[in-house]
Amino acid sequence: MDIFETHCHLNDDQLYGRIDEIIERARQAGVSKLLVVGWDYESSLKAIKIAEEYDFCYAAVGIHPENIYGVDEISLIDTLELSKHPKVVAIGEIGLDYHWTKEPEKRELQKQFFIKQIKYANEHNLPIIIHNREAFEDCLNILENNKPVASGTMHCYSGSVELLKNVLDLGLYIGLDGPVTFKNAKTPKEVADVVPLDRLLLETDCPYLTPHPFRGTLNEPVNIRLVLDEIAAIKGLSKKHIAEVTFDNACKLFRINK
Ligand code: NI
């Protein structure tokens, strides 16, 4: 079975020191392609280093909404220009995070960075990886006014079934990860049930969002199997089929040869 892990942070210090064994475990479990996602300049550079070292790894570069503070225009452009590297397949992760940010002026700054990064992606015909936490209305407004021309993914989709339609109407993919396995996670399970197979991507967001039953430990790409198992059970389809379709979806979105 071939699985495409479309959102991992092997560039995170918690994983980077043990990257060989972590990748080996993932490969043993059938993960044959991995997209390593940056959240600032340094982590984007590290994602590229990993993609240079392992031919089945790819990189995304961008500045996460929680990391924009204190970043000037030149640093932003420097980060986005890393996308000139041939192993960079997307701009991300970018978006809005209102969970920790309550101040209106800071939220405004997040919006400006999000729009600038979408515009850059559009000018360079690159897909985007969207981080959206508790900011759905503003996020959708921005996307509707700045349509991602090369599409993108709503990473760790956390919205309702009703909002799902808006995201799908924008032509975006839906990334599902650990929360779909949580025992009390009613909404993610409903979303997994109704999301069209041709728009679904599998991811872990490791080292975060460890799936059940390993919650409380550090997440890593091998655990994508638990996400796959749960989605297959919810949809009543074989794991192999879901793995195949989501693999193809990722290759299409990120323009990677199978
Ligand atoms: Ni992430």
Give a verbal description of the structure.
With 258 residues, the chain is α/β, with parallel strands linked by helices. The chain has one domain: Metal-dependent hydrolases (TIM Barrel, Alpha-Beta Barrel). Helices cover 43% and strands 17% of the residues. Strand 6, helix 7 and strand 7 form a beta-alpha-beta unit. The protein is globular, with a radius of gyration of 17 Å. The model has no long low-confidence stretch (mean pLDDT 97). The structure holds nickel (II) ion. The site of nickel (II) ion has 5 residues, from loops.
Number of beta-strand segments:
8
* Helicity level: 40-55%
- The CATH superfamily name is Metal-dependent hydrolases
Q: Which class in CATH terms?
A: Alpha Beta
Order of helices and strands: EHHEHEHEHEHEHEHEHH
Task: Determine the structural class based on helices, strands and strand pairing.
Answer: alpha/beta
The oligomerization state is single chain
Largest sheet: 8 strands, parallel
Bound molecules: nickel (II) ion
By CATH, the architecture is named Alpha-Beta Barrel
Please report the distance between the alpha carbons of the first and last residues. Answer: 13 Å
Instruction: Give me the Rg, rounded.
Output: 17 Å
The overall pLDDT, averaged over residues, is 97
Task: Determine the CATH topology.
Answer: TIM Barrel
β-strand amount: 15-25%
Number of domain modules = 1
The number of helical elements comes to: 10
